[in-house]
Amino acid sequence: MTSVLYDAPGPKARRRSLIASLVTGAVLLAALGWVVATLAGEGLFDAERWDIFQDPLVWLGLWERGLLVTLQVAALASVLAVLLGSVFAVLRLSSVAAIRIPVTIVLEFFRGMPVLLMMFFILILFSTSQYWAVVLGLTVYNGAIIGEALRSGIVALPKGQREAGLALGLTPLKARLLIEFPQAFRAMTPIIVAQLVVLLKDSSLGYIVGLRELVREQRLQAEFFGFSQYGFSFFVITLGMFLVVNLTLSWFARRLASRSPGGRRSRRAARAAIGENADTTVIATRGATVGEAGWSDGGGADPH
Amino acid sequence: MQFLIESGDVLLEGFLGTLRMLALTFVLAVPLGIVLAGMRISPVPSLRWVAAGFTELLRNTPLTLVFFLLVFVVPRLGVVVDFQVSAIVALTLYTAPFYAEAIRSGINSVPVGQAEAARSLGMTFTQTARFVVLPQAVRSVIPPLINVTIALTKNTSVAGGFFIVELFASSRTLANAYADQTIAIFLAVALCYLAVTIPLGRIADRLEKKVAVLR
């Protein structure tokens, strides 16, 4: 990897860099070793803390009442959020003020408060099940964010697109739905997918409102078998499960972004959306994927 | 009337808790983010890898799990601290990589020609970064930094699920105490969050437009 920020390292710099790398490596190894030794000292790697994972029923529970529920909630909320986001985007750009203004206010309201708060109040206001509280909370919150992304995607399109549609005799609504919306949706796909990764992560908030999903299931099991003995093991396994699912999805989002059609323009539109977007992961993923002038990571399409 | 007076106190306490957590996390996470961003653009490969690994790991872990680790698991390992401290550590660890990415994308937004010109004048990495790239990057870094802060504000609510007194926890207490007033409570708590997030968003938008014109 080369960078404009510094020359290709010569022998001396390479040696220094190697030394620095070795020192960092040594420090890291030492730190890691210390952590492992401490954990081992507490007996965390003893067989008795891990023996229950030989029992297929434990895994079956983690899968059926845990990961599967998490994935289901996230999948359902994803579909609903994309639909809701599309509706929000079109309504927010309506030329009728009586539609546009209330929708704008509602969107600001939904985007500015925590998803957790929304889940909790859906739960008590509508006395739904925890399952639907989580699904609907995620839907409304992410729908508002996706709606904003789609809106800025539509705004970023060249004016001629809409004008051409109108000149052909399409009604304004038809021009929006048939000409502008599909283009904006394509340009914003990477952002939407990145937001769906956030949605999946946020589904674990169900733990706090009492939904039995992966985090709660592992806790219930750990407590059933004895938290002081198995708490750590269950945590490690759960973390591993989340990482596998999320890293796969993030990788997929990144791949989509690097293949996104339309090149520069849609990427600029995507970037414009980041500014509007109040969610961290979207920004962070954008930073890594759509840096136009990126030099530090070769455009950063792959931040590994 | 009774309701208004009593809930006002609980709400205020919660709001102050949220603001305190927000401020402390901000103060800790931004420097950590700067260090991480610096590591990711540095010429030393091992530093880049460590920072990238940390970022990937934290970015793909749900915040609930980070809290779970610090509040339930770490104390079992003999490190017992106040829940307040655990919460701030959890939020800092989770947020710092996002700050780092915001800073890095700001650095990436400075046109390559700027760095090339500086390099061709014979400036070193440190000089290029310090005198040419970073001063320009700061401008475009601020809006994304604000956006991360907005997300942090919303994320502080997760702490409410882990025994910390803040807005979300207050809303739960109130909703239990006054079951007939849930809509009012919901609106009041939501407005407290919006009082922080909406002004921040406005500032970010305005700065963004300014930066866009300058470029």
Q: Helices and strands in order, then pairings?
A:
The complex is a heterodimer of chains A (304) and B (215).
Chain A: H1 11-41, H2 47-50, H3 56-92, H4 97-112, H5 115-125, H6 130-155, H7 159-167, H8 172-202, H9 206-209, H10 214-225, H11 227-258, H12 263-276, H13 280-289
Helix pairs in contact in A: 3-6, 3-8, 3-10, 4-6, 5-6, 6-8, 6-12, 7-8, 8-11, 8-12, 8-13, 10-11
Chain B: H1 2-41, H2 45-59, H3 63-76, H4 83-108, H5 112-120, H6 125-159, H7 167-177, H8 182-214
Helix pairs in contact in B: 1-2, 1-4, 1-6, 1-7, 2-4, 3-4, 4-6, 5-6, 6-8, 7-8
Provide tags for this entry.
heterodimer; A: 304 residues; mainly alpha; MetI-like fold; 0% strand; B: 215 residues; flat
Structural description of this entry:
The complex is a heterodimer of chains A (304) and B (215). Chain A is mainly α and 304 residues long. Chain A has a single domain (50-293), classed as MetI-like (MetI-like fold). Chain A is built from 13 helices and no strands. In chain A, α5 packs across α6 and α8 packs antiparallel against α11 (227-258). The longest helix of chain A is centred in the N-terminal third of the chain and has 37 residues, at 56-92. In chain B, 85% of the residues lie in helices and 0% in strands. Chain B has helices at residues 2-41, 45-59, 63-76, 83-108, 112-120, 125-159, 167-177, 182-214. In chain B, 49% of the residues are buried. Chain B is mainly α and 215 residues long. Chain B has one domain (2-214): MetI-like fold (Orthogonal Bundle). Chain B starts with a helix and ends with a helix. Chain B is built from 8 helices and no strands. The longest helix of chain B is centred in the first third of the chain and has 40 residues, at 2-41. The radius of gyration of chain B is 21 Å and the shape is flat. At the A-B interface, α1, α4, α5, α11 and α12 of A face α2, α3, α4, α5 and α6 of B.
